[in-house]
C-alpha cells in the first residue's frame, strides 16, 4: 500500500466513511480503479493501479480530489516529468488521415542550458533516451519546437564514448533565438514514429504538447491538425 500524507489526511479525509473505496482515474485510460483505504494507507487495489500505470520506485504521484472520494491521478517520473503513455495520445494530420504518419508521445526529458553546451553548441540527452522508440542511431537531424510552434533544425548524433544521443549545430541558435540564459530548464517531449524526423517539443504537460503540435503542423503545412484521444 501507500501512505496518505498526514496533512492532507487531516484536512480532507479524516472522518470520511472508512469502508468507502477511493476511485482513481487518470489520463492514461478510461478505466476507474477502486482502492480500499485502511486508516491512512491505500491497500487493496493499489497494486493493480501501479502495475497498470507502470509505476516504479522513485516515481511521484499527484492526487487531485474531485469530491466523493474520486481522485484524478497524474504520475510523474523521478525527474518530475509527466510520464508519457503512448497508446492513448495520437496526433494526426486532418488533411489525409489515412496516409498520414501517426505521432505518439514516446519519451520526455529535462534539459538545462549550460555555459558548456552553449559554448560547444552541443547538448547531450539522458542515457535513458536510448530506449525511446522515436529515436535511433540512424537519425541525422531533429526539430526543436518551442511553445509557439516555431521549429529549429539541429544535427542529431550518437556518441560512442558517452553512450548517449546529442544535439548540435542548432542547439545554440535555438537557445539564442528563444532568449535563454544559463540555468534555464526545458522539458522536451520527444514525438515521432521512429522513421520520420523526430520533434523535440518544449512543453511541461501533455495537453500543451498537443496544442503545440497543432501549431507546428499548421505552420509547415498550412493546414490544421486534429488530435485523437481514445
UniProtKB/TrEMBL annotation:
Pfam families xref list: B3
Domain annotation TF-B3: ranges: 1-79, 108-206
Top-rank lineage group of the source organism: Eukaryota
Subcellular location(s) per record: Nucleus
UniProt keyword DNA-binding present: yes
Keyword DNA-binding: yes
PANTHER family in UniProt: B3 DOMAIN-CONTAINING PROTEIN REM-LIKE 3-RELATED (PTHR31674), TF-B3 DOMAIN-CONTAINING PROTEIN (PTHR31674:SF31)
Entry protein name: TF-B3 domain-containing protein
Taxonomic classification: Eukaryota, Viridiplantae, Streptophyta, Embryophyta, Tracheophyta
